[in-house]
DNA sequence: GTCTATAGCCAGATAGAC
DNA sequence: GTCTATCTGGCTATAGAC
């Protein structure tokens, strides 16, 4: 049954996605989330009886799917994996710059804060990263790499992307992402 | 004048370093810091009149210097940059695993949480990353790389290290770091 | 310079009217 | 299912005895 309640739910998830990406799990207060989502406190616990953990877990999963779809969309237009990585980095860097370096990877901050101490969120982050890695590895295999080698490469390409976003936000500069762009090509040997 | 006050100060910085690395800026409460540092509340504000921001800024700076020294120490034994990166990754991975994936990069979580919204901490993180990058670039130049190329490579190697630590903590696995180890060699073309 | 007590505020969560 | 009022507890920071 789709109703107005779903709209409220969606707004809360959207607000959580934004605030969690900008300030992390502990930095994103629920008061800010309900204000940004224009929802009363009660609605939050109606839609997310599991409280903050459930809301953030769902927000991370949605962001994860969005990036997976971004990768799939860009993969359809890229002629090889190197072009795909470049397109992904360009898209993420544009988004980051447009947000004044308040955005980068939507799940990295939570991944670090929750690595120890919150098993539910740690699992969600691991799954999201696993999905992105899988998408890259599939493309590498389609490009002719051996499966085992493809997994290794996909993991390192993802690490390069993630790390460049951390450095770019810390230094408020697009440079680390552009360097990663070039290095990805070197890693892929083309 | 070295006195007992300095010991208290050092304990507080040490406690802040640990807790901030594990849970980030917002996740590391001062109550936990003073408990771990075995110091009363008043001492914290005596030694750090600037409050939490000053304490965390100093903690990040100390951690930054420690890693810089780690790089310098390992560089003295490594025969080339590839060996240096491998040794750095091994050391960080050992530390991470020993801590049950509660540790990784001592400043990454804060870098993400403070990228927007806390100019003081953002600057500290940018400086620390800049110092590590400089140390790697210097070694690359010593190995015969052209300065401009060395800066690019150093930035990407650092991104690869940082990203692999994020993935490793999220997945609670050493694998991402080991993949980065191999890929660093590919990036350096040896 | 060490330490306690507490102010003042905001967090996450809940109860219950409508 | 929407919304308000409120509970409890934790947070950062400060005041002031010793």
From TrEMBL, chains A, B:
Keywords assigned by UniProt, alphabetized: DNA-binding, Transcription, Transcription regulation
DNA-binding feature ranges: 29-48
HTH tetR-type domain segment(s): 6-66
Database matches in PANTHER family: HTH-TYPE TRANSCRIPTIONAL REGULATOR LMRA, TRANSCRIPTIONAL REGULATORY PROTEIN
Name listed for the protein in its UniProt record: TetR/AcrR family transcriptional regulator
Organism: Actinomadura sediminis
